[in-house]
Amino acid sequence: MAKLAINGGTPVRHKPWPQWPVRDEREKAYLLKAFEESQWGGFPEPQPMAQELAEKFAAAHDAKYGVCCANGSISLEIALRAGGIHAGDEVIVPATTWIATGACAVFVNAVPVFVDVSKTNFCMDPDAVEAAITPKTRAIIPVHLGSSIADLDRLTEIARKHNLLLIEDCAHAHGSKWRDKGVGSWGDIASFSFQSSKILTSGEGGMLLTNDEMLAKRMHSLVNCGRQEPGYENLDEWLFGYNARMSEFQTAVMLGQLERMPELNARKAENVEYFTKRLEEVEGLDPVPTDPRETARGIYQFIMTYDSNAFEGVHRDRFLEALEAEGVEMSGVFYPPMPQNPLFHAWTRDWPMLRERYGDGIPSPEAQKQLSFPVAESFAKDTGCWLHYPYLMGDKSDVDDIVEAIIKVKENLGELK
Q1: Contacts of 248 by beta carbon, 8 Å cutoff, 6+ apart
Q2: Beta-carbon contacts of residue 60 (< 8 Å; ≥ 6 apart)
Q3: pTM higher than 0.90, yes or no?
Q4: Is the per-residue pLDDT at 57 higher than 90?
Q5: pLDDT digits over 63-93, tens only?
Q6: Phi (first) and psi of residue 311, to 5 degrees
Q7: How many Cβ atoms are within 10 Å of 14's Cβ, its own excluded?
Q8: Which residue in 94, 114, 267, 276 has the most C-beta neighbors within 10 A?
Q9: How would residue 123 be classed by pLDDT, with cut points 50, 70 and 90?
């Protein structure tokens, strides 16, 4: 008789996992306040609650200035524009990330230059960054991935040495700290996402952080259609901006979410510590190690690496399929290498500055031949396992169920062959 649920056995997990997003009366109270004050949109910019959120969010990440915006994708484009990136400039981005990290360069008619990621934590490899710098390079966008932080010591050093704009993509990293200083306060600009899957969410929305007053003013103007309003007037030039404002309903939800960030991150950290200890029982499924300079981790997705040799040659995807049947869903190909992602169809006919490096465009066969990223490709296709963070929002019994499901599948690998 089959033991694995994928073959008809009884699953390990029957009850639902902790509900996401976490919310209570505090979000309701802020929403009611926004409703009653009758200024629901983002104009004039910033609205009172948006200003309050920007100040509190910046302070929570050790930055001086915050600018609310529509989402964590347009935020990256605004960051490049505010930082003076122009047509034909090169922007170095990691291969392993969501498409927005590279698309933002395309959308400002710049050229994304993709580099491989580190074997240790799958964040941008600083050695690959240095090798990719050319006379046209103007910016670097590292991504703090999953539960890890890119090597900010090396990357800030490289940016200073070559006079490059450093933009931190912190979409996964709310509340994380590098050497006791908040992520988002290390680079010139930082971008956070409040999309529905993120650590803190208002459904959609985003935040830009900086320690530079002029950059903050430029970002306010770009978010607000290029206007110059009190607090960001008298700029050196009029900017061709966007309507990328965040509504007061979104900022209301985020004010409640921000208040609970320390509690949520502490609960996840406790469960991650317990989960990491229990995973010692499972040879071949190893957590990405924590860099000692990561003094606080937001924990978006908990990433592990899978060694098929320790699982009798069973491929990761087959293992994850069996694990899902036991009631524990993990992702394998969470992020295919960005330029190989079918959503990243940037053609030169639309973005002519790509031609010199990518011929007809990034999806073209001639471009794909040069876009090889061994670490990112192996991570996506064979070894990466991403545990969704709501699984870590409960108690130790939930963590025990995850580990028991993993052990059950491993003990019955013969059923998968």
Answers
A1: 34, 37, 39, 40, 41, 42, 47, 48, 49, 50
A2: 175, 182, 258, 261
A3: yes
A4: yes
A5: 999 999 999 999 999 999 999 999 999 999 9
A6: -120, 35
A7: 8
A8: 94
A9: very high
